[in-house]
Amino acid sequence: MRRYPAGTHVRGGLYLNPLTGQVAVVPRQGGPLRGTEGFFVRLPAPPALGLLLAPLAGAVFVIFLPLIGLGLMVGLLCRKAWAATGMGGGLSALFARAHGRPGWAFLHGGRPDPAAGAPGDRAERPAGTQQAAKETK
């Protein structure tokens, strides 16, 4: 990175003095670096925007964080009130089960075919296990 002494004429952009943390904004036409001592380094556009927008991002965080907390608290209170009425248990059980068969996902979107049986019933078994199953019956 090229160093520019304080007071020199430079092209437009954002310049930073790394020793003091002073930021100099030079207009597009160019101009002198205003500063009393040290040197300045020219910052490219994306980091310069980040440097200028950081206080705005902090302000947004400070404003919206309490609102998010209030929203979470209202949701918690609504869930507690719903559960206290006694209607919440049946509704949550309806959404928690997969057509009354635990362990089955039914990701295809339809109801299962009762004639199909369990998922492992139609699996191909090795020949030795079929013979062993016949002998044990």
Question: Briefly, what is this?
Answer:
By secondary structure, the protein is an alpha+beta fold. The protein contains three helices and six strands.
How is this structure best described in words?
By secondary structure, the chain is α+β, with helices and mostly antiparallel strands. Among the domains are: 41 residues, no CATH class; 38 residues. Helix content is 43%, strand content 15%. The chain is built from three helices and six strands; from the N terminus they run E-E-E-E-E-E-H-H-H. The strands form two sheets. The protein has a four-stranded antiparallel beta sheet. It starts with a strand and ends with a helix.
Task: Break the fold down into its secondary structure elements and pairings.
Blueprint: E1 3-5, E2 9-10, E3 13-16, E4 23-26, E5 31-32, E6 39-43, H1 45-84, H2 88-96, H3 127-136
Antiparallel strand pairs: 1-6, 2-5, 3-4, 3-6
List keywords for this structure.
four-stranded antiparallel sheet, alpha+beta, about 140 residues
> What does the main sheet amount to?
4 strands, antiparallel
Mean pLDDT: 75
**Unreliable segments (pLDDT under 50, ≥5 consecutive)?**
none
> How many extended strands?
6
Distance between the termini: 84 Å
**Category by helix and strand content:** alpha+beta
Q: What strand order characterises the main sheet?
A: 1-6-3-4
Q: What does the overall shape look like?
A: elongated
Count of helices?
3
Radius of gyration: 35 Å
Helix content: 40-55%
Q: Helix and strand string, N-terminal first? A: EEEEEEHHH
How much beta, percentage-wise? 5-15%
